[in-house]
TrEMBL record:
<comment type="similarity">
    <text>Belongs to the peroxiredoxin family. Prx5 subfamily.</text>
</comment>
<feature type="active site" description="Cysteine sulfenic acid (-SOH) intermediate">
    <location>
        <position position="53"/>
    </location>
</feature>
<keyword id="KW-0575">Peroxidase</keyword>
<dbReference type="InterPro" id="IPR037944">
    <property type="entry name" value="PRX5-like"/>
</dbReference>
<dbReference type="InterPro" id="IPR036249">
    <property type="entry name" value="Thioredoxin-like_sf"/>
</dbReference>
<comment type="function">
    <text>Thiol-specific peroxidase that catalyzes the reduction of hydrogen peroxide and organic hydroperoxides to water and alcohols, respectively. Plays a role in cell protection against oxidative stress by detoxifying peroxides.</text>
</comment>
<dbReference type="GO" id="GO:0005737">
    <property type="term" value="C:cytoplasm"/>
</dbReference>
<dbReference type="InterPro" id="IPR013740">
    <property type="entry name" value="Redoxin"/>
</dbReference>
<dbReference type="GO" id="GO:0008379">
    <property type="term" value="F:thioredoxin peroxidase activity"/>
</dbReference>
<dbReference type="GO" id="GO:0042744">
    <property type="term" value="P:hydrogen peroxide catabolic process"/>
</dbReference>
<keyword id="KW-0676">Redox-active center</keyword>
<keyword id="KW-0560">Oxidoreductase</keyword>
<protein>
    <recommendedName>
        <fullName>Glutathione-dependent peroxiredoxin</fullName>
        <ecNumber>1.11.1.27</ecNumber>
    </recommendedName>
</protein>
<dbReference type="InterPro" id="IPR013766">
    <property type="entry name" value="Thioredoxin_domain"/>
</dbReference>
<dbReference type="Pfam" id="PF08534">
    <property type="entry name" value="Redoxin"/>
</dbReference>
<dbReference type="GO" id="GO:0045454">
    <property type="term" value="P:cell redox homeostasis"/>
</dbReference>
<dbReference type="GO" id="GO:0034599">
    <property type="term" value="P:cellular response to oxidative stress"/>
</dbReference>
Length: 164
């Protein structure tokens, strides 16, 4: 994965610039086009509003967003296998504002293209994304931190900040 281009995948978002809900529907985000010429820190997690994701993973990135930008990160992307409306509501509930783009991988296209799906059908949650973080420069993956199932260590904001 390191040294490869991002897969050609479209994610979706309800940008925070829109007041309230998404009146015109989610906006398509072409991963390759959006990352061109930028340094992006993408972190993915199993699900919005889930305990570890809501209490630790996303809040860590919100807390360290300014420090990550000071180290050269242009954008921070949070990706989960949820729809764009859920990602927007989750971001609003946790006070993300414009510090992090909340991107929906509703069909697990990104997780699948990266080979990082997590089968949680036995727990009633379907196919999800593994927990991971990617450092992307101009559309190319330059670092990948993939968690062991049930762990939150290497993909934390603090770890990615130390790696920068």
């Amino acid at each position: 994965m390191i040294g490869t281009s991002l897969p050609s995948v479209t994610l979706y978002e309800c940008p925070p610039a829109l007041e309230g809900a998404c009146p015109s529907g989610p906006v398509a985000v072409d991963m390759r086009a959006e990352s061109a010429g930028k340094t992006v820190l993408l972190f993915a997690l199993p699900g919005a509003f889930t305990p570890t994701c809501s209490a630790q993973h996303l809040p860590g990135y919100v807390h360290h967003a300014a420090a990550l930008r000071a180290k050269g990160v242009d954008e921070i992307w949070c990706v989960s296998v949820n729809d764009a409306f859920v990602m927007r509501a989750w971001g609003d509930a946790l006070g993300v504002g414009s510090s992090i783009r909340m991107l929906a991988d509703g069909n697990a296209d990104l997780a699948g293209a990266l080979g990082l799906t997590l089968d949680l059908r036995g727990r009633g949650m379907g196919i999800r994304s593994q927990r991971f973080a990617l450092l992307i420069r101009d559309g190319c993956v330059v670092d990948a931190q993939v968690e062991e199932p049930g762990k939150l260590v290497c993909s934390r904001a603090e770890n990615m900040l130390a790696l920068l």
